[in-house]
Structure formats: C-alpha cells, structure tokens
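Protein modeling request. Please complete all fields; requests missing the sequence field cannot be processed.
Requester role: graduate student
Desired output: 3D structure, token encoding
Chains: 1
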Amino acid sequence: MPITAYITLFCTGFSEVASNAEKRMSLKMRYDLAQLNGASAEDFKDLYNAADKALYYVKQNGKKLGFHSFWDGSVGYYNKDMKCDHIAAKYDTLTEEQIAEICQGTPNDWALVNAEQMREIYTLLPVHSEITEISEQNHARMEEIVRQQALRGGYRLAKILNEIFSK
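Delivered output (167 residues):
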C-alpha cells in the first residue's frame, strides 16, 4: 500500500471534510492497531477517556476543547476545506533517506521522541488559552509539528503494517 494511502487513513479520522463512515473506519483501524500491540479494548477506552477529560483545555472561538481533542483534530484545523488525499500530497515531500530515518527504532523509541515534542506543544499553546489568539509564530510552529507528526505516524504505520502483512 503506498504511503499516501496510510497518511490518508491516518488523517481521515481528524478531517473536518471526511464523512462519518471514513472517520469510523479510521478510528477502527487505529483501535485494531492498538490491540495488535497488546492493548485491550478496555485499556484503549480508559486511556482515551482519561486523556480526553484532562483538566488541561484550550478554547476555540470561546468553546472549551480538551487539549487532546484539539491535537486529534489539528490536521483538519490546519488544512480546512482540504480532502485527506490532498493533505497527504501536501505533506508527503520527504526523500527516501528522510523516510528511512523516521522509521528507524522501535515504537518505544518513537514514543520517547513524541513525548519530547509534546513538551514543546505545551509551551506553544498555554493552558486555557484561546487558539485564535496564539501568535502567528506559534501557529506556524504548531502547524509544522502537526505535519511532522502526520508524516511520522503515516510512515511508521506503513512500516508496521508492511512488516505484519509481509509475513
């Protein structure tokens, strides 16, 4: 499966223009991958609910939005009115060497890299802040992080799925 298909699948769940059926399929695929990695359905549900109900929230046009919810929807937020295949084409500009570098390591290594980047996100989008009042500089950096995360997620998902299905 080409990487654009994986990135499309990954971002479909977060897109404002994706149909409900596409969003459900994307969530189901992410849920199935969590189970392949040993998480039970209850673990996944508990983890998601705990993160979604965190006290750390931001505001979007005055409406409270969980920090987790905002970042789950950030691909769509930064690419309004774009379909997922267009977002994938816009993001997918890496060389073979860059792709190989992204795919190095294990899922545990990837989690540590993501955790490090999440620390930066909390400084760019302070607690209880209004998203529309964040500086252009912070928005530009946040959009770049969204792009990086989508690419990492897409290529790493492709690596894992290719390994699974090549057996």
